[in-house]
Amino acid sequence: MAAPAASRVFFAVHRILTRNSLRCSGHARHLCSGEPGGRSPADAHDPGSLFIQPEVQDILWRVTGFDLDKIFRERPSKDLQPAKYHLLTEKQLQEIQGEAVERGKKRLQMPPVMTCREDVEHILSDNPEIEGFDQHPYVFTDISYNLPDRSRSIVVREPNGKLRMATHNERDRMLQVYFPVPGRMYSIPEMFQEENVERLLRKGKYEYVLDRACVQFEPDDGSYIRVTQRIYEHIASVCEYDQLRSTRHFGGMAFYFAYYKKIDGLLVDMIQRDFLADAADLVKLYHILHPNCESAQQVKVQQVKDEQELIQLYLKFDSHHGGMVELALQTYNESREQTQTNLGN
Amino acid sequence: MSLAIRLALHGCANRPFYHIVVMQTHRARNSRAIEQLGTFDPMPNKHDEKLVALNFDRLKFWIAHGAELTQPVGKLLGLSGYLPIHPMTYITAKRNRERAAAELAQKETQSTETSSDDNS
Amino acid sequence: MAAAWRAGVLILTKCPRIITSCSPEWQQTRHQCSLVTQQLQYRVCLRAHTLSQHSSAQMLQPPTVITTITRDTTYFTKVGADQLWEGVVAVSNAGRKRGRGKRVGRKKITDLNRGQMIGTGRANFLWPGLNTPVLKGRQVIQRKQLPPNPDRDAELVRIRDEMSRISYKANPPLLRGWSGSRFPGQSVGPPDPVGDYKFEGFDTKVLEFRLVTNMTGTLGRKQSFTAFVVVGNKNGLAGYGLGKSQNGRAAIRVAKNRAAQNLMFIPRFQNHTVFHNMYTKYHKTSIFVHKKQKGHGLVSHRVISTICEMMGIRDIHAKVEGSTKNVKAITKGFFNALIHQETHQDLADRMGLHVVETSKLRADLPVVVASPTDGIVRDKQLVDEEEDLEMDYDRLYFGGKVEYERPKKLPFYHKLRSYRYRKAEDYMRRNQAGCKVLRDAGLW
User: Do B66 and B90 fall into the same domain?
Assistant: First the structure.
């Protein structure tokens, strides 16, 4: 169920960003939750527009991985049905496997990274003559067919006579009343309060919280950004990046680290698991998000032959905790040499 | 045959809930409508709001087909901003303000009387 | 002196033996006292001797012979306890013909030896070698009399009273069989060890326990117990056996051991179910067996459920058609079917196709369970192009048979208009309870 919601949101966001509608005000061009770790992004572009770029999407897709066994792992279900068995020819088997791969790709569709939305008060009409017509505000929702959620008009007539556009929270609630998303709750579950998120993180339930956050919130919701960023920080602190591999959340996490210049931990993890191509991709992503950084300039100047060189360039010029990465690279090279000598013997 | 866009009272005892429907005027209030165009919940929810849903698309269609609006529907549409504010809204608002002012004045006089009694 | 004589005579007559009292001068004529024991003779002699010393005058009187007929051995001493009890409890041949002595109120044998230990009696003695060891370390224990036990008789009476009371063993619920305190469905322990092999992990359950009669020419009705049991180690080994005996427990024991001799290996899929659906028929009993997923449980005839428990099958659905009472037929048919299962690998090799599993738990991800070992996979899928058969794995082993599906019984009011309106209302309110739960939980 999370997939359809995410896909709907994804396409809506894409349309919005290309059409320039419902943008936040010019001043607030950074992710709502402020600068974690006191580090500001080098180039304050709107992360949403950066995320949408095809090169970035390609890199994130490659880095996520594609383990069908993990994507379709056994999940507990209430209605038990016996497994079905089929006797297939080679051609039929390949067909059915292709279909499974397609379904797997759908499950890996990433929830978009967007700038945090802000409530701008937009008054449509001010009628002080009708002040006192009622004690409660009236919320009017347009339930016309086939309107995208983001362009549905929801207005509020206050008891003081003002007619204004509904705030984002009010919009979410009204849309959930009249066009409910399965899995989404009308009131925000207590699970997303900070203490409860911490408790779940201690238990290691990263994917669960991320999945539920994806269903419950819109990607530009402040709560969503707060929860997801907190989870990414925690994963970095305990170095459990692998839990999100082959899930839809890995791309968002990689983008977050690259955007906030914290890719060292993730690089170490990738090198340790022999994903050198992924590590190089991550550095490339870093360069795309921060084109004015030193190593990016160096790459343009120099001829970079292979992945290790690219990573070394980054380590030399831009890395802050490069020691661990260098150590990991060293270990990787040593083990490769050893295997080669073993093979030779 | 005349068409009307009006409120049909559903819900149950002590819990009213209105459907905004288009139907022929001679038919019973709650009988099957030609089309339902929205809802109106007169009881405020836990966020203290009164919810109104309106299918403006179809509303436009039926008004164009000569459907009349009843007073409550007219009021709602006026409040929503789709149509000009209904005159009765102005009058109701004024009356409410006057009543509230009178109550306030009465309360103040009562409190001054009691305080003067205490003093004396 | 006369009193002493009489006393002497009295002592001797108390013993249940044939004795003759004889005057002292007849001591030599032993032939008349031939039945007197040495001890008694000794006594008589002693008495005679002492008496002879005292009065010679009395010896001139004619001898008084007092004969008291007492028996040395009786029926009670000649015959064993079993036969004695027969006299009390048993029914005559004529009576048996009329069906006497078969009911509940018939007398039962009381084992009088219960509560008594050899070497102890009313006089509490320690007999070294009998009820105490002879040597205690280096010390030799002497024969010793202990103070008498006053409660002994009362205790024996109590034990014998309790024995005569009819008590039905109350089995705790988890150990009960299919019904009540009857044997079928009950566990009767592992089979007896054969040489060194101890049958660890094995258990047996009784499937059938009957009392059968055979009319013989000589004895008339000859009854014996038959027990049909299944033995298994709950991990792929199982077997069934039949035992007969006059005694119920013996029949079960014989059956158990016979079943242990006939163990079969039952191939299972992932140690919890069969490989595929199958159909089997033995005499008039047909069984449709269905493979089920983990957590389904044993949904089948109680005989089949019991057998599956012993085999280690945990999830199955079996429908018995035809004769559902013939326990032996069900058992034999079921075992036959399970032994002749085709594993996934065998099927792949035979058909020359991939065997692929798709499960809802894994969102229909195709998992190749078995491929042909030689690597050659057939091109066309149809088996018989004329009949255009499809490879429906669910019905592959049914041999064209179709399971009878009982039509769902609709309620008698299903045609009433009011019921149709009610159904419409129920549909309208289909999610109200769910929404209420969410609201109450504060999640809405």
Answer: no
The pLDDT, as a whole number, for residue A12 is 43
Q: Count Cβ atoms below 10 Å from residue C247 Cβ, excluding itself.
A: 11
B18 and B44 together in one domain: yes
Q: Which residues contact B90 (CB under 8 A, 6 or more apart)?
A: A129, A130
| Residue from A67, A85, A102, A215 whose CB has the most chain C CBs within 10 Å, to mutate | A85
Give me the pLDDT at residue C385, please: 53
- What domain range is B96 assigned to? 86-120
What's the whole-model pTM score?
Answer: 0.74
How many residues are present in chain B? 120
Instruction: Count how many domains chain B has.
Output: 2
Q: Is residue B8 part of a domain?
A: yes
Do B119 and B66 reside in the same domain of the chain?
no
| Claim to verify: residue B50 and residue B26 sit in the same structural domain | yes
Chains interfacing with C (3 or more CB pairs < 8 Å): A
CA atoms within 13 A on the CB side of A173: 19
Across A54-69, average pLDDT: 96
Domain-located, residue B80: no
pLDDT at A3: 42
Q: Which amino acid is at A206?
A: Y
Helices (H) and strands (E) in chain C, counts: 12, 16
Phi, psi of C94 (to 5 degrees): -60, -45
Q: Give C54's Cβ-side CA count (13 Å radius).
A: 12
Whether residues B11 and B36 fall in one domain: yes
SS3 A29: coil
Q: What are phi and psi of C316, to 5 degrees?
A: -165, 155
Please indicate whether, in this complex, the C-beta atoms of A139 and B90 are within 8 angstroms of each other. Answer: no
The size of the A-B interface in CB pairs under 8 A is 81
- The mean per-residue pLDDT over the stretch A270-288 comes to 95
Q: How many helices (H) and strands (E) does chain A have?
A: 15, 5
User: Both B106 and B62 in a single domain?
Assistant: no
Task: Give the separation between CA C183 and CA C354, rounded to whole angstroms.
Answer: 47
Give pLDDT < 50 ranges for chain C: 1-22, 24, 26-50, 386-388
Inter-chain contact C377–A83, Cβ cutoff 8 Å? no
Cβ within 8 Å, pair B89-A173:
no
Across the interface, whether the CB atoms of A124 and B81 are under 8 A apart is answered yes
Span A237-248, average pLDDT:
96
Closest by Cβ to B57, choosing from A130, A134, A145: A145
Show which of residues 169-228 on chain A sit within 8 Å of chain C, judged by CB atoms.
185-187, 189
- For residue range A92-116, what is the model confidence (pLDDT) as tens digits? 999 999 999 999 999 999 999 999 9
- With a cut of 50, say whether residue A43 has pLDDT above it: no
Domain annotation for chain C: domains and CATH numbers? 2-44 (no CATH), 182-265 (3.30.160.20), 278-390 (3.30.230.10), 409-444 (no CATH)
Q: Which residues of C384-405 are buried (b: 16+ CB within 10 A; e: fewer)?
A: eeeeeeebebebbbbeeeeeee
What is the domain-level CATH number for residue B40? 3.30.1320.10
Lowest mean pLDDT among A223-232, A329-338, B59-68, B109-118: B109-118
B79 part of a folded domain:
no
Token digits of residue C14? 């108390």
